[in-house]
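Field: sequence (string)
Field: structure_tokens (string)

Example rows 1 and 2, in order.
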Amino acid sequence: MDTRNLATRYDLPEMSWDAVRTRLDAGFAVGPDSDGPDRHTCWLTTTNADGSPHVNALGAVWGEGCFWFVTGLATRRGRNLTRDPRCAMAVSVREFDLVVEGVAERVEDPEVVARTAHRYASEEGWPCEVDASGVALTAPFSAPSAGGPPWHLFRLDARAAHAVGAVEPGGATRWRF
């Protein structure tokens, strides 16, 4: 991993990727009546066919060292990811703002899909379950931007990330993996 301190101009320390991962491993609540901000804190950026960016909020989860998210394949983000899997995920937590850049891979391993459905249901309160195909999710509801079911699971494999510290001592750091 290549680490670059982006805040040397202000004599701020380099941020630790291990500390960022540890904070993400602790979870980040986003839903109403949670300890989160009562709004989405994750945004996914994909690339439209004309090269312009497409950004929207979504309910991503962190686990096993990466971000996971779902979408309908007929949505704009689903079509964009099918055509060009390069994307970026942004998340804001109390300690930092983070952008992870990489490649989203559609996951069709039934065990992984089931494990992620359980994570969404138990940790995020979204009552999803694996559908009859065994490789996608269904639920009574989802975010309007996700399209209708089935929702397909994607894993974002990070190629690079950068964070800006939001609490003392602050900082800004970029990592290339």
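Row 2 begins here:
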Amino acid sequence: MATIIQHLWFREDMAGALETYTRLIPGSAVEWTSALQAESPSGPPGSVKIAAFRLGDQRYRAIETEAPWSFNHTFSVMVECEDQAEIDRLWDGLSQGGEIQQCGWLRDRWGLYWQITPRRLTELMSDSDPAVVRRVSEAMLSMVKMDIAGLEAAAAGK
């Protein structure tokens, strides 16, 4: 079976990004880093940095070199959190120097997009009652950082 690994391309400070990500997300680690020792379209020998790392149970590779593009909303890392404390911790850590957005989205200071969501949201959005799903959807769309208590209140019709 094929192995699926996400690949991220950083314009700068890949090491800082990976240190932050692996510090904030339990079960994460940088597995190795290196520099490409050959001339490449991206630069001379030693100028292109590469790395392998894990975020929780997901495998990633990364490269750092100049690029004419940056991350955008078409790719994001979604983290399903067990409780509000975990949402708050990740939100605070990843949004530093970045940009917060609607519906639990943020862009970190390296430009990568994240969705910090409660696992409970998935459960509420799959409720068999369409009225519950509508109320939860409306509540979620009005939030910036996800608030589990607010989602629960919406589900209950409060």
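free_text_note (row 2): The beta strands are 6-10, 29-35, 49-55, 58-64, 76-81, 99-100, 105-107, 113-118.
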